[in-house]
Structure formats: structure tokens, C-alpha cells
């Protein structure tokens, strides 16, 4: 568990924003999509329902001073985050849930303000007697990459 992580009330870990270090968390929770995902013949034959959670630790230029300007351009847009996740899922069949989570995390880290991406991919219908199986992947921007990337998610 990373520094600053705390339970979110649903048994999952979520990052607590650290205003003293100038950080905030942007998240999407429970995005359900149909995905072509898996190694088994029945998974290759038809899409299946998946559920995604994404948490991004992003720089917060307003902290620790308090409230920043009410300007949309200064924040990571969660609508773009949803669109980005949908676009990655739509690229075609992926064998492993780990690969899908890694691709979403890598795409999110293309926004220069994102320092850490935590992606959960669940397959809720994989087994009839299990509510879900899946993976959680966490990726950090490398220290030497903090200045890299674009200001916003790629189109």
C-alpha cells in the first residue's frame, strides 16, 4: 500500500489528497463497458462486461495556499478520463486484464500533471460463484519524467 493510501469504505484503497505537497485525487469508479478481453475461447468469441476504477494522483497548483481560480483549464478533466478509458478498451482484443490496466495507466500518465495512476479492472461475470475477479495496477511517473508529457490527456 502506498503512502497516503486509505480505505474508501468499499474495501478498496484510495489515495488521500496531500494539500501540503500540492496533490489531489481525480477518480472514476464503476465504469462498466463491454470489452474483448481474455484467453479462453468463449472470451475471444464475444465481448464481456468489465468494470473499471481509475484513481489519479495529480499536482494541485492551488495547494497549500487554499482555493485556486475557478478555471477548468487548471484541473484534470474526469470526462476526458472516462473517454480515455473507453478508447483504450475499444482498441481491440486484449488477452490479459493486467495488460488492459497497464495500457489505461500509461495513457493517463501522458497528462503531465498526473503523477500516479491506479487502475482496477474487474471481470464480474467470470465465475458464477464469485462477485468479480481482476487486477489492480499502479504506475508512477518517473522522477525524470515529471516535466514530460502534454498538459492534458491525448485526444
Question: Layout of SSEs?
Answer:
Elements (H helix, E strand, L loop, with lengths): L4 E3 L5 E3 L7 E13 L5 H5 L2 E12 L18 H12 L7 H12 L5 E10 L9 E8 L15
Antiparallel strand pairs: 1-2, 3-4, 4-5, 5-6
Helix pairs in contact: 2-3
Main sheet?
4 strands, antiparallel
If you compute it from the alpha carbons, what radius of gyration comes out, rounded to the nearest whole angstrom? 16 Å
Instruction: Tell me the helix content.
Output: 10-25%
Element order: H for helix, E for strand:
EEEHEHHEE
Query: Order of strands across the widest beta sheet?
Result: 3-4-5-6
Poorly predicted sequence stretches spanning 5 or more consecutive residues: none
Number of domains: 1
The coarse silhouette is: elongated
Strand content: 25-35%
Distance between the termini: 32 Å
Q: Would you state the CATH class? A: Alpha Beta
The CATH homologous superfamily: GTP cyclohydrolase I, C-terminal domain/NADPH-dependent 7-cyano-7-deazaguanine reductase, N-terminal domain
Helix/strand/pairing category:
alpha+beta
Remind me, CATH topology? GTP Cyclohydrolase I, domain 2
For the secondary structure, the number of strands is 6
Number of helices: 3
Write the CATH architecture name. 2-Layer Sandwich
The overall pLDDT, averaged over residues, is 84
